[in-house]
Amino acid sequence: GIQVEQSPPDLILQEGANSTLRCNFSDSVNNLQWFHQNPWGQLINLFYIPSGTKQNGRLSATTVATERYSLLYISSSQTTDSGVYFCAVDNQGGKLIFGQGTELSVKP
Amino acid sequence: DAGVTQSPTHLIKTRGQQVTLRCSPKSGHDTVSWYQQALGQGPQFIFQYYEEEERQRGNFPDRFSGHQFPNYSSELNVNALLLGDSALYLCASSLGAGMSSPLHFGNGTRLTVT
User: Fold this and answer.
1) What residue in A sits closest to B92 (Cα-Cα)?
2) Distance from the CA of A64 to the CA of which of A25, A54, B2, B91 falls in 20 to 30 A?
3) Which residues of A touch B50 (CB under 8 A)?
């Protein structure tokens, strides 16, 4: 089955810093989504981005499908950005495969 | 616009017992998927329901079963509970099985098996 690798596994930032999270996948996909899981376990959909670039406020994402990777950019980080960021992909019509996540901690 | 709702939020069961978890999808969605998330891991796909049928299944034993009702809500049943079934169970809804569309998750049910 398709493999998803996220890097880095952990990241500690000072408030106001920028960061880039990476997601590599092993096969072509028709679905790629980025999620943020807050410390209470709530999983929030950030981007649905099988290809191209999208921006939402301080967050943006780029997926280069031909090279099998996606990047999530967080600018001017805030403490509320802390949590785990997951990349998930699908090439079977609905069966999302999640990476192991990047745990982000933003310090005040 | 109601999001995905799950009940109960927490549950404690004894090994060998059976449990039923419930999920109501986001308004306008017709497909429900269930995921299991162990501590420190990413969510793992259990199965997907569309038009009241199981459409896809992950690598989970037959002890895990489900149902979807005509109003698109869904139940996850786990029989003969094992200690290893302790996890956060997440329900996600989307539009159209087999189509690529954004997934929206509920807040989950945290199951503890003792």
Assistant:
1) A43
2) B91
3) 94
Cβ separation A92–B97 shorter than 8 A: no
Only one residue has tokens 């699908």, namely A90
Q: Chunked in runs of 10, what are the mean pLDDT values of chain B (114 residues)?
A: 90 98 95 95 95 93 97 97 98 82 93 98
**Which regions in chain A score pLDDT beneath 50?**
none
Is the distance from CB of B31 to CB of B51 less than 8 angstroms?
no
Query: What is the token pair recorded at B58?
Result: 């992950």
Geometric angle at alpha carbon B78, from B73 and B82, rounded to 5° = 150
pLDDT digits (tens, 9 = 90+) for B27-58: 999 999 999 999 999 999 999 999 999 999 99
For residue A21, which of A31, A11, A32 has the smallest C-alpha distance? A11
Dist. CA B5–CA B92, nearest whole Å = 9
Shortest CA distance to B74 belongs to which of B23, B14, B110?
B23
Supply the mean pLDDT for chain B: 94
Cβ-defined contact of A41 to B110 (cutoff 8 Å): yes
Query: CA–CA separation, B25 vs B15, rounded Å?
Result: 29
Beta bridge partners of residue A31, listed in sequence order = A90
Query: Three-class SS of residue B83?
Result: helix
Look up residue A20 and give its two tokens.
């880039």
B97 CA: distance to closest CA in chain A (Å): 6
